[in-house]
Automatic annotation (TrEMBL):
Organism of provenance: Pseudoalteromonas aurantia
GO cellular component: cytosol
Domain of life: Bacteria
Lineage: Bacteria, Pseudomonadati, Pseudomonadota, Gammaproteobacteria, Alteromonadales
Family named by the database record: Belongs to the LysR transcriptional regulatory family.
Protein name as it appears in the record: LysR family transcriptional regulator
Length: 298
């Protein structure tokens, strides 16, 4: 008695039609007939009453049908248990959403992941960042991956490209990798006058935006630099002075949003991640792939 025979008998018991049962189990009608006869011979009793119009199961056939269903159900449970013992207990499909900017990271990471966990199904969805956030909150995706401009994360100071901020090398802000607007509030500011009307307008608007109009001091670049070296002020000037400032060992250009040209990988999941879970393994692969690609482009 083979498992295929049990499946064939269940099909016949459900459909009560030899041709339809044969089609469902992908064998010929004559082969199905021989299979049922073999079962009856092994069990030693009639299981099916055949007629020109219908197929009926005998009382023993009904009992055997229940046995077949229970046996096949137990077989599937045993298969699943064996797979879990080999690959871990998390046997569900992972849905990963990612933006187009992360399209070089996610598919490659998933390829490596599936090589280690071939039993786990992975579905990848290309979405925009807002949709990823919505789907993650609703539990429609398991992991979201996107690249976010570092300026959005690290700095809320938005200056035109024609303007720069700088301080003395001993200033508390000199060593910061990024700069927040609130960090400037406790320090007074120098402003360098520009001969260009358009740039001067930008300077005035930037000063107002930083809420520093009361501490604004107008002067030429040399006066501003001299005053800066002996104070805790920071200064704003047009980009035409950037070379002079960069070459002065006593001055440091402050990093604002326009000074940061890289992007930050953001990976989020709605799962509790155990140290030995396959989800943690996938998250690590995503991070590693992103780091490898970042190094390759530098």
């Amino acid at each position: 008695m083979r498992f295929e025979q049990l499946e064939q008998f269940v099909a016949l018991g459900s459909l009560r039609h030899f041709r339809q049962a044969a089609e469902q189990t992908k064998i010929s009608t004559s082969a199905l007939t021989r299979s049922i006869q073999t079962l009856e011979d092994e069990i030693g009793c009639e299981l099916v009453k055949r007629s020109t119009r219908s197929v009926k199961l005998t009382e023993q056939g009904e009992l055997f049908l229940n046995y077949c269903k229970a046996t096949l159900s137990e077989l599937e449970l045993t298969k699943k248990t064996i797979k879990q013992s080999l690959f871990g207990r998390d046997q569900h499909k992972l849905v990963i959403g990612y933006t187009s900017k992360a399209s070089a990271i996610v598919p490659m990471s998933c390829g490596k992941f599936l090589a280690d966990y071939p039993n786990v199904k992975v579905e990848m969805q290309l979405q925009d960042e807002n949709e990823l956030t919505r789907k993650l909150q609703l539990g429609e995706i398991d992991i979201s991956v996107y690249l976010q401009s570092a300026s959005n994360v690290m700095s809320d100071i938005h200056l035109p490209d024609q303007l720069i901020l700088f301080v003395s090398k001993h200033h508390p802000l000199a060593s910061k990798d990024s700069l927040r607007r609130s960090e400037l509030s406790e320090f007074p500011m120098y402003g360098c006058f520009s001969q260009l009307k358009q740039v001067q307008t930008m300077l005035n608007e930037a000063v107002e935006g930083l809420n520093k109009s009361t501490s604004m001091k107008i002067g030429n670049i040399d006066q501003v630099i001299d005053g800066l070296k002996n104070s805790n002020h920071f200064a704003i000037a047009s980009i035409e002075h950037s070379k002079t400032i960069a070459q002065d060992p006593n001055l440091v250009l402050l990093k604002t949003n326009k000074d940061v040209d890289h992007e930050q990988l953001v990976v989020q999941t709605n799962h509790h991640v155990n140290s030995d879970s396959h989800i943690k393994h996938l998250l690590e692969l995503i991070e590693q792939t992103a780091q490898a690609q970042s190094c390759a482009t530098q």
